[in-house]
Every structure is written in structure tokens, then in C-alpha cells.
Amino acid sequence: MKSHHVGILGYGWAASAHCDAINATSNAAVSAICSTRPLDAAELKARHGRPIAPYQRYEDLLKNDQIDVIAITGYPSHHPENVIQAVEAGKHVIIEKPIALTWDACQKMAHAIRQ
After folding, report:
1. 3-state SS, residue 26
2. CA–CA separation, 104 vs 115, rounded Å?
3. Distance of alpha carbon 58 from alpha carbon 29, whole angstroms
4. Shortest CA distance to 101 belongs to which of 88, 83, 85?
5. What's the predicted TM-score (pTM) here?
6. Which H or E run includes 28?
7. Torsion angle in degrees (nearest 10) through CA of 91, 97, 101, 106
8. Could you report the per-residue pLDDT of 30-75, keeping only the tens digit for each?
9. Which terminus in the chain has less CB density within 10 A, N or C?
10. Which positions ≥6 away from 105 have C-beta within 8 Å?
11. H-helix or E-strand containing 71?
12. Chain centroid to CA 66: how far?
């Protein structure tokens, strides 16, 4: 049984690569994906080989107590806000590169993570 349940924010090319890589590990599985585009749970299961809950609102994904890790693969300009929201919700984070667009944004994320 996999011990970490991952929610992915964003569903572009990077998210698909993250999904496949995470699902290939022995200790984590993608359990949810959040995209502004409507996603179909049956299509996600067929594509990634396991049940994955679709979300359209990040806030709803963060409220899911089963999800303990958020993989952030959305727009880099949104990474700081997305990371801070995730850590404030008590989630671990995986951040797609670039982590942020400015050093100040990186510092704000690091501060939130340390808290």
C-alpha cells in the first residue's frame, strides 16, 4: 500500500510526467488532479491506471484530508501563492521548475515552508 497520496495542481505536460513518475514509486500515488479544465475521472483512471479524483478548485483539493502532498505544476507566476496555500493547509509540496520567477518569491515560499 502506498503511504503518500498526492494531488497535482495543473494538468499539462509536466503534470502527466509527474503523475507517471509518482505512480511508479513504491510509496506514493496520485489520488487527485486539479485543473481549470473539466476532467473526467474515468478518463484519468484509463490514462494513469488508478482512480484519480478530478477537481476544478484548488481550495477544494487542499481540503481533502486524504491528500498529504501537492505537486505544483501550474504557471510559475502562480507557484508562490500555490505553495503558500498548500503549506498553510498542512501539505508537503513538490514544485515544478522554475520554482518561482523572482528571488523574493522564493524567499516568501521558503519562509512559509519553515513556519
Report:
1. coil
2. 17
3. 19
4. 83
5. 0.93
6. strand 28-34
7. 40
8. 999 999 999 999 999 999 999 999 999 999 999 999 999 999 999 9
9. N
10. 79, 80
11. strand 69-72
12. 13
C-alpha cell at 97: 521548475
Cα distance between residue 30 and residue 78, in whole Å = 21
72-105 pLDDT tens trace: 999 999 999 999 999 999 999 999 999 999 999 9
Query: What distance lies between CA 83 and its chain's CA centroid?
Result: 9
Residue 18 φ then ψ, to 5° = -60, -45
How many C-beta neighbours within 10 Å does residue 97 have? 9
CA 57 to chain CA centroid, nearest Å: 12
Question: How many CB atoms within 10 Å of residue 45?
Answer: 12
